[in-house]
Structures are given as C-alpha cells and as structure tokens.
C-alpha cells in the first residue's frame, strides 16, 4: 500500500469526522435552544459588517424566539400573540385590516383566527348593514390574556436591553424610527405600483 495514499485517506477521514462533529454540534445547539447563539456567532465571527437589514431581521428573530419561549408554557403561539396585541389596542377590526396591521397575508390571518376562535379567544361577526366584511372581537377570555402575556413581552424587552445605557436606547429607537420613516417615503414613491392580487380561491371569507 502506498503510504502517501494511506496518509491522504486518513487526513480526509479526519476532516470528515471533524466536519461531522461541527455539524452535530451546530445541530445540538439549535435543538437545545441555541438558535440565538448561532445568530450571535454569525455576526461576531462571520460577517460583522453585513447589511443593516440583516441585523434588524436577526435581532427580531432573537426577540421573537425569547417571547416564544415564554408563551409556550401558556400554550399561546407567537402567531396568536401578534393578533392579540393588535386587538387589545383596537378591538373590532375587520379581518382585512387585521391582516394589514399584522403584516401577513389574509389566508394566514384566516387560518390563525379560526384556531383562535376554537380556543375561545375571539369571535367573528358581521356588523349590521354590511354582510361582506368580517369584524374580529375579543372574548372575555381573549381580553383576560392581556394581563398574563403583556408582562412576558415586557420581560423580553428588559432582558434584551440589559446592560445597554439609557442614552444608547434612545439613539437606537431614534435610528430605527428614522429607518421606518425613510422606507415609508420610499414606499410612497412606488404608490402607483399595485400589489399582486391573491387568487380568489385563497381569499378569506
């Protein structure tokens, strides 16, 4: 046997084992709640100067993950939370307006509301004089969730800003509001561009 071939094969096998171990480690971290740690490593080690849009997206992912961990013991999904928090502020929205407020497509809203209705959080009804629009109202059970769930969101905010100076928080808030304002102005420039219509069979009834 050629010793060089044996050495090369051994090196490849060793690299394969190390690669497998790294993959297993990453999978283990993900499976044991390490998703946010992987995000952090991406920014600290891989691409620290990546685009702002990606940073905001990943920060949002981390915040959502932290809230999901707190909502899970109460058997409330993040999707339901997104609609509940809107309805706590403005009850009785139409299904379409609720979709716009939450930033999701109407079929997604329709499916979530059906599940929330089964759980007794909301009721859907038509107002007199308009049989086409469906309005969403919280039940007493849905309204009562507020006092239990809002503190969880407030806790996530406290954890996220731990060690961050108050002055820096003000700067971050001001910066993000400027980002939103700039993008709102940019969107207005495309105001005459119509959004693709949803297929009729998918539209929520």
Structural notes for this entry:
This protein has 205 residues and is mainly α. Among the domains are: 31-76 and 150-164, no CATH class; 77-144, Arc Repressor Mutant, subunit A. The protein has helices at residues 3-31, 35-46, 52-71, 78-89, 95-102, 106-118, 140-144, 146-160, 166-189; strands at residues 122-127, 130-138. The radius of gyration is 24 Å and the shape is globular. The N and C termini lie far apart (73 Å). Residues 1-5, 18-33 and 198-205 have low confidence and may be disordered.
CATH architecture descriptor name of the domain at 77-144: Orthogonal Bundle
CATH class of the domain at 77-144: Mainly Alpha
Rounded mean pLDDT score: 80
Q: Per CATH, what is the topology of the domain at 77-144?
A: Arc Repressor Mutant, subunit A
